[in-house]
Design goal:
single chain, 21% strand, 4-stranded mixed sheet, alpha/beta, 2 helices, two-stranded parallel ribbon
């Protein structure tokens, strides 16, 4: 489906369907269908969290790495996230 990321060295068995907005961690074994909007990893692959939870965690991590002296305005950050959301159809 659309917007799927499969990590390196992962194995997906024949006939398995992966829903949209799914992330599969590296070295995972996907032996059954994966529901949309989730993050999966392991052998066999199991759901770790929802796609939305993952995006929110990444946003929080990114916000924590921006230092005051980098001169990046709040408007520029919001504009970048708006572009990300638009390209990934999250908004």
């Amino acid at each position: 489906m659309d917007n799927v990321f499969v990590g390196a060295y992962s194995t997906i068995l024949y006939g398995v369907r992966i829903g949209e907005n799914v992330i599969v961690g590296s070295n995972s074994l996907v032996n059954k269908d994966l529901a949309p909007n989730g993050v999966y990893a392991g052998i066999p692959a199991r759901r770790i969290c929802s796609f939305d939870e993952f995006v929110q965690k990444r946003r929080e991590q990114k916000a924590a790495t921006i230092k005051e002296n980098q001169h990046i305005s709040r408007e520029e950050i919001e504009s970048a996230w708006d572009l990300f959301n638009k390209e990934h159809k999250l908004s």
